[in-house]
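Researcher: Re-running this chain for the archive, since the previous output was lost when a drive failed. Same request as before.
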Amino acid sequence: MQAMQTSAAGKAEQQAANARATALNYQAAQARQAAGQERAAGQRNAMEQRRQARLVSSRALARAAASGGGTGGTVETILGDIGAEGEFRALNELFIGEERARGREMQADARTFEAGDERRAGAIARGAANRKAGMGLLSSGVSMYEKYGGKDNNVSKDNIYRKKRT
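Model: Regenerated structure tokens:
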């Protein structure tokens, strides 16, 4: 009876570990989805930075033309600087989005690793419980043999071993 309880407890532990692993795998999937969203946000932010740079360039060109300054070297230099700054900001937004995405992917990898550990721990617990149950049955069998077995009723674990060797 106790062997069955021990074995059932091991099975329950394995099922609990599998449930924890399933939850960890779900968290990993969520983190991977969040990584994609972080990348997309970085891309949207980069597009916005480029749009802002175009607007600033357009406004600067319009002001230069309205002031009668034309499109000489100074205006071209200013417009080039505005474009370079806009591109720098856009690339910076892409970098930020990528770094956030990598952080989420690392979280996902960690959760996946933890899920594997949970499953292995559950399998080990079940195996240990089954071995313990088997040892309990074996011990009960030896006790029964010591109590009721043998012709001389002088049976012990040591005597069984000695009889087998001789």
